[in-house]
Design brief:
Layout: H1 2-23, H2 29-55, H3 62-75, H4 77-83, H5 98-101, H6 103-126, H7 155-159, H8 163-181
GO molecular function: electron transfer activity; heme binding; iron ion binding
Protein name: Cytochrome c556
Signal peptide: 1-28
């Protein structure tokens, strides 16, 4: 009897949740734009933190570097792609409509951004003390990619690159995305 009562209550709860999910409206376009903009600002601030540590290696703190990399990791990839999965018409949006037409390309860029951030996180975890020379670019280290040809490559390829080397194409990835999918000011 208890089991039957439990199953009936569970079934009723599932039905209520299903009804509520169809009644609760999805976030307004402005809410999605606000979320996207907040994530973009957080990623820009994180990139600025990492950049500052490369400009002044004495300021390197592994936990702050890792936190900044994690901010980018957590807001890129499928999270970033989902923010642009459907047309959002809002006067606050700076996104171009071609994101929907070229969603596969946008998804690849978002994934590459995440892959770079994951590699930067690993560099911070592997270097808890002062910034070692191994995190810095070496003279003659090829940049590769260019502003419109960035691609993260495999985890193995990224694992042998210096963190600073990884950081530069990560920034190029942001530039590529903005050039292709953001209304210029």
């Amino acid at each position: 009897m208890r089991r039957t009562l439990f199953l009936n209550m569970f079934g009723l709860l599932c039905a209520v949740v299903a009804v509520l999910m169809t009644v609760v409206p999805s976030p307004a376009a402005e809410d999605v734009v606000t979320l996207r903009q907040a994530d973009m600002k957080a990623m820009a601030a994180a990139a600025k933190t990492i950049s500052g540590m490369f400009k002044n290696p004495e300021s390197y703190k592994a936990a702050e570097f890792q936190s900044a990399a994690d901010t980018i990791r957590d807001r890129s990839g499928t999270v970033l792609s989902s923010h642009f999965a459907s047309e959002t018409i809002s006067p606050q949006s700076k996104a171009m409509p071609n994101i929907l037409e070229e969603h596969e390309r946008f998804d690849r860029i978002a994934k590459d951004l995440r892959d770079y951030a994951v590699a930067l996180d690993a560099a911070a975890r592997n270097n808890p003390g002062p910034m070692p020379a191994s995190m810095r670019m070496k003279p003659g280290e090829a940049m590769g990619g260019g502003p419109f040809g960035t691609h993260a490559g495999s985890e193995q390829e990224l694992s042998v690159m210096s963190a600073e080397h990884i950081f530069h194409p990560m920034l190029q990835t942001c530039t590529t995305c903005h050039a292709r999918f953001r209304v210029s000011q």
